[in-house]
Amino acid sequence: MAGNTVVCKPSEMTSVTSWMLCDIFREAGIPPGVVNMVFGTGPKAGEALVKHPDVALISFTGSTLTGQRIYRLAADHYKKLSLEMGGKNAAIIFDDANLDMCIPATVKSAFLNQGEVCLCTSRLFVQKGIYDSFVRAFVHETRQLKVGPPLKNDTTVGALISADHLSKVQRFVDDALASGASVLTGYPEDRLELPSEYKNGYFMLPTVIVGVEDSAVCMKEEIFGPVVCIVPFSDENEVVERANDVKYGLCASVWSTDVGRVHRVANELQVGTVWCNCWLVRCLDMPFGGVKQSGLGREGTWDSYEFYTEVKTVCVKY
Q1: How far apart are CA 104 and CA 238, in angstroms?
Q2: Closest Cα partner for 228 from 247, 251, 209, 243?
Q3: Second label for 35, Cα 20 to 30 Å away, from 6, 71, 184, 242?
Q4: Which DSSP string corresponds to 123-174?
């Protein structure tokens, strides 16, 4: 639609899939030079692209720290930016929620793609009246997930992206345990059973943490792995304040059969997207993006069209 050529710099962790995508572009008949793939690390290839004076516009998806670096580097040339960064997404479950819908959806929202999705839920706020029964049902549902090789039909949770990232995610859990929290299922309480050829893979059991304070690192920082914390709350005003008490603002979900409450809470949450009684309902025409340290700008059919073009005014007298 916009008619732009594109230079893409994928993560060095996903070079193979990006290379395979180039073959698909060729098969689709896209002319050479329309989509250009640059492989390399962020500090070398990525930073060179960001700093180059001929690059007028940058769209970035990744960590908040890298986004901050890009923001600073782009300032010298006043480059147009769209930044989609980290999240610390909350689900708020009121005591009138339909749990038959809510529990499978929130389990999926916590552990889809082993939690390596910016939109995944990592904080569950559950109203006190249903807290105990919700936790029991959530843990039961989580234990049905199968960790293993992604090409097997019965696998629902695959491997994390790298050994370093696996260690980082596990450290979040270790820190929570050291501060007095409890793990109800997952790492390190349960044993991970894998075929022998996958024993050295970067797999981790879906992990549920309770008894954690809002000030804990695992409640404040993006984990980006199969870890979720479940905490109780009393009333609407309290939970909105607690859900907003993070530096991120990407998305949230609200679960209640009270339509007025759903709208009130959605309006007060400091995030770019709120799903009510659902999760990850997407349409390409919907604006997508975050607030606070989760991002800058919006994506989506028309928002992207505006971002990737420039408005020009031409006045002609005749």
Answers
A1: 25
A2: 209
A3: 71
A4: EEEEEGGGHHHHHHHHHHHHTT--BS-TTSTT--B---S-HHHHHHHHHHHH
pLDDT at residue 2, rounded to an integer: 75
- pTM for the whole structure: 0.95
Contact 129, 288 (CB under 8 A): no
Q: Which two tokens stand for residue 43?
A: 């500090």
Tokens for 1, please give them.
Answer: 């639609």
Structure tokens at 240: 């909105």
Q: Active-site residue numbers?
A: 84, 118
> Which position has the token pair 């899939």?
17
Q: pLDDT for 24-70, tens place per residue?
A: 999 999 999 999 999 999 999 999 999 999 999 999 999 999 999 99
**Helix, strand or coil, per DSSP, at residue 315:** coil
Q: How far apart are CA 216 and CA 13, in angstroms?
A: 29
- Confidence bin at 92 (pLDDT 50/70/90): very high
Q: Which residue has the tokens 């090789």?
A: 149
